[in-house]
Amino acid sequence: MIASKYYKPEVLTCPKCKSKLIYRYAISKKTVCYSNGKKSKIHNLAYSCPNCKDSILYSSQTANKIAFRGYTYSNKVICMIAKLKNNHMSREEICDYCYTKGISISDRNVDNLYKKYIECRDIDANEKILKAYERMMLTFGQIRLSVDLITIEDSSFVIIYDYFELELLGFREFHGLDDPDLAPYLKLFMSPNLNITLIASIRKDSIFIPLLKSLCPAKTKFVPFVKY
């Protein structure tokens, strides 16, 4: 039996009037396969403001970051396949490797997931940031970003979303957290003059969070993802 997991927004106050958000309905329900072969049914719960006269829904970035829209394999599976492809493994070899992890996948799906990785990797972050930040400041008067780190062997994959629209803003692979290209890439998202909130995995032993904090504006607020 596949377990169900329910996720509500990480911030439950309205960004415009500070009222407490209330539950509306689940905006997505899908079964996701993780990199260890386990599966769970993810319910992303939408909330809205009872006082603002708008149709804006707020949902969970924890649920959103587990897997891309329309995909039932987790983002970590996509990163794993990208790593294996970059190591020159064939589709058949990747399928066999996934099988040892308990992941059932066809060679066609290997190709589809790798194409998704290439599509996300090639996003023009500068253009995305400009449009998303303008929209967020106009509508909410603040910036909220979801920043996820996925580690596969010696590679670090950084994935950044617009919290409000759940839109992917950046996806990049680095050779570990000491990669000299990592800090300049993160700085693209950290305007010193904007009110920014970051939703990220905050662990006591994390190396990534101190790095983020060293690059962020001084008053940046950090909010943890829900454990899943």
Concise structural overview:
The protein is of the alpha/beta class.
Verbal overview:
The chain has 228 residues and is of the alpha/beta class. Helix content is 32%, strand content 27%. The chain contains 7 helices and 8 strands. It has helices spanning 61-66, 75-86, 91-100, 107-121, 125-140, 182-187, 208-215, and strands at 3-7, 22-33, 39-48, 143-152, 155-162, 167-174, 196-200, 221-224. The strands form 2 sheets. A 5-stranded mixed sheet has the order 6-5-4-7-8. Helix 7 links the parallel strand 7 and strand 8. Helix 3 packs across helix 4. The longest helix is centred in the middle third of the chain and has 16 residues, at 125-140. The protein is globular. The two termini are 17 Å apart. The mean pLDDT is 90.
Number of strands: 8
User: What is the terminal separation in angstroms?
Assistant: 17 Å
* Structural class based on helices, strands and sheet pairing: alpha/beta
- Percent of residues in helices: 25-40%
Average per-residue pLDDT, rounded, comes to 90
N-to-C SSE string, H for helix and E for strand? EEEHHHHHEEEHEHE
List the strand order in the largest sheet.
6-5-4-7-8
What keyword list fits this structure?
alpha/beta, 228 residues, five-stranded mixed beta sheet, 32% helix
